[in-house]
């Protein structure tokens, strides 16, 4: 019998934080392990109670990793009909309020034993390697695949001195990915160009959304009104998630859209500011707390409006299309995958946004074909991932032995590999200096997990 592949999927977030890097890697693990031909381990961050209280919604906290794992598994089991055959393990993490992100603590490659260190999938590879200090990913694992989820450059540009920060971040991302990944999958062209990268949307939607869409399709076939509500948007309520663009459009074209009513659903750091700005408009804008997009409350909406240009591939847009709705979004690289759907309307200007919004509110969505519905599924997304990640190919980097040949007689491949090795050594050296780490934005004292974190995760004490 051939040896099973061991795939370790490392990600930067976990449920109950409902963010893309918590949900999508979870589904990827489940579907990669579904046929039993691979041994899959999902590696997610464990947070101290203090950080859990900041990050997780509805005051949900976990006293130990096993309770957290049980929550994650139950959530997934309720949304799929597949037998869960993957493992879950945890790495120590800390939440950065400044970056609004969870960052690894210590050398998280140690969570996977050397004997099973076959393939690593880094969900957000730049995020996982910015401050990584320890064994190099490409040394530990035979093959390392990065999946780029987030357009960090776009977020940084919106901060103070954003374009200067983005200039340096672009080169840092290139650097850490080059020395740690064999191949990189960019979900869309909205991300920066990266070494050894390919563009492919390898994400699907929760099967529940496809079931909702099929139920709506059956209603349409029976001649029943399937979509009786108007327009809405759902997303974390921070300005960078499309709320700024949406309110600017509604403000500029209030007269043309005087009959429009928009319901906004979201919770986040900018909730109060969004509410205040919405009150100033002469339009009916109702603001509600965030909730699960699969909630029956959303089933009857006809139009999903999403003007965001910071996403790489917007999960909620895919979910809305799966439910059979009309979607209005910007003509932007992040939405290229959705342009194949007749129910997706993309606009290039504010006037075109108004025209398409009024058009969408006056017509019924087209029934989604079986072929297009299939492209939104996690089965199809997993097939695309296996293909572009070349998981079924026996690929390894060509071994270039150490040599004492004169510098001028080295081949280009040997020179490239030598420069990369030197670059990796430099990064490992700098990332091990506390002052340098802090200068580049790392959380203080995250070179190694503290005694309490080690105790909670059953690690050797520092």
Describe the protein's topology.
Blueprint: E1 5-10, H1 20-32, E2 38-46, H2 49-55, H3 65-77, E3 87-96, E4 101-104, E5 119-123, H4 125-129, H5 137-140, E6 143-148, H6 152-157, H7 162-180, E7 183-186, E8 197-199, H8 207-221, E9 229-234, H9 243-252, E10 261-265, H10 271-279, E11 284-288, E12 301-306, H11 315-322, E13 326-330, E14 344-347, H12 350-361, H13 370-375, H14 378-388, H15 412-430, H16 434-439, H17 451-457
Parallel strand pairs: 1-2, 1-5, 2-3, 5-6, 6-7, 7-8, 9-10, 9-12, 10-11, 12-13, 13-14
Antiparallel strand pairs: 3-4
GO cellular component, one term: chloroplast outer membrane
Domain Glycosyl transferase family: 232-335
InterPro entries: DGDG1/2, Glyco_trans_1
- Uncertain runs with pLDDT below 50, 5 residues or more? 395-404
Task: Characterize the biggest β-sheet.
Answer: 8 strands, mixed
- Sheet with most strands: strand arrangement: 4-3-2-1-5-6-7-8
Number of helices: 17
What's the quick description here?
By secondary structure, the chain is of the alpha/beta class. It has helices at residues 20-32, 49-55, 65-77, 125-129, 137-140, 152-157, 162-180, 207-221, 243-252, 271-279, 315-322, 350-361, 370-375, 378-388, 412-430, 434-439, 451-457; strands at 5-10, 38-46, 87-96, 101-104, 119-123, 143-148, 183-186, 197-199, 229-234, 261-265, 284-288, 301-306, 326-330, 344-347.
């Amino acid at each position: 019998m051939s040896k099973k592949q061991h795939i370790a999927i490392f990600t930067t977030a976990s449920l109950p934080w409902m963010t893309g890097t918590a949900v999508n890697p979870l589904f990827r693990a489940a579907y990669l392990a579904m046929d039993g031909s691979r041994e899959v381990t999902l590696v997610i961050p464990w947070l101290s109670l203090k950080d859990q209280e900041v990050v997780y919604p509805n005051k949900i906290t976990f006293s130990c990793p096993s309770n957290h794992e049980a929550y994650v598994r139950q959530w997934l089991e309720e949304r799929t009909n597949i037998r869960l055959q993957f493992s879950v393990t945890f790495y120590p993490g800390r939440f950065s309020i400044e970056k609004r992100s969870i960052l690894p603590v210590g050398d998280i490659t140690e969570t996977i034993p050397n004997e099973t260190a076959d393939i690593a999938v880094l969900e957000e590879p730049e995020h996982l390697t910015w401050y990584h200090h320890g064994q190099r990913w490409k040394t530990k694992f035979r093959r390392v695949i990065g999946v780029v989820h987030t357009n960090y450059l776009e977020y940084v540009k919106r901060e103070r001195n954003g374009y200067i920060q983005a200039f340096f971040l672009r080169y840092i991302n290139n650097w850490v990915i080059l020395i740690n990944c064999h191949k990189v999958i960019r979900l869309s062209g909205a991300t920066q160009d990266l070494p050894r990268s390919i563009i492919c949307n390898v994400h699907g939607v929760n099967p529940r959304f496809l079931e909702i869409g099929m139920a709506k399709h059956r209603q349409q076939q029976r001649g029943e009104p399937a979509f009786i509500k108007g327009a809405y948007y759902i997303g974390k309520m921070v300005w960078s998630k499309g709320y700024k663009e949406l309110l600017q459009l509604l403000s500029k074209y209030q007269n043309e859209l005087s009959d429009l009513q928009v319901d906004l659903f979201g919770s986040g750091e900018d909730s109060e500011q969004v509410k205040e700005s919405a009150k100033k408009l002469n339009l009916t804008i109702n603001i509600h707390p965030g909730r699960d997009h699969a909630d029956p409350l959303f089933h009857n909406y006809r139009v999903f409006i999403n003007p965001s240009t910071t996403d790489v591939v917007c999960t909620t847009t895919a979910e809305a299309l799966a439910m059979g709705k009309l979607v209005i979004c910007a003509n932007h690289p992040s939405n290229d995958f959705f342009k194949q759907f007749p129910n997706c309307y993309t606009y290039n200007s504010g006037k075109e946004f108004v025209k398409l919004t009024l058009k969408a509110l006056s017509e019924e969505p087209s029934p989604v074909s079986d072929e297009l519905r299939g492209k939104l599924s996690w089965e199809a997304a997993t097939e695309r991932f296996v293909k572009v990640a070349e998981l079924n190919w026996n690929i390894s980097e060509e071994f270039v032995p150490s040599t004492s040949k004169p510098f001028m007689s080295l081949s280009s491949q040997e020179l490239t590999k030598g420069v990369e090795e030197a670059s990796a050594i430099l990064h490992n050296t700098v990332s091990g200096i506390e002052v340098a780490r802090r200068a580049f934005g790392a959380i203080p004292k995250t070179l190694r997990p503290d005694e309490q974190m080690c105790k909670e995760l059953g690690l050797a004490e520092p």
